[in-house]
Amino acid sequence: MKNKLTTANCEPPTVLSSDKTIYWLVKQEPTAYSWTTFVKDGETEWTGVRNFQARNNLRSMKKGDQVLFYHSVLNPSVVGVAEVTKTAYPDPTAPEGDWSCVVLKPGHPLKRPVTLAEIKAIPELAEMALIKQSRLSVMPVTEKEFKILLHHGEQDSPPLPRSTKGTPKSNKAPKK
Question: What are 28-37's pLDDT values in tens digits?
Answer without folding.
Answer: 999 999 999 9
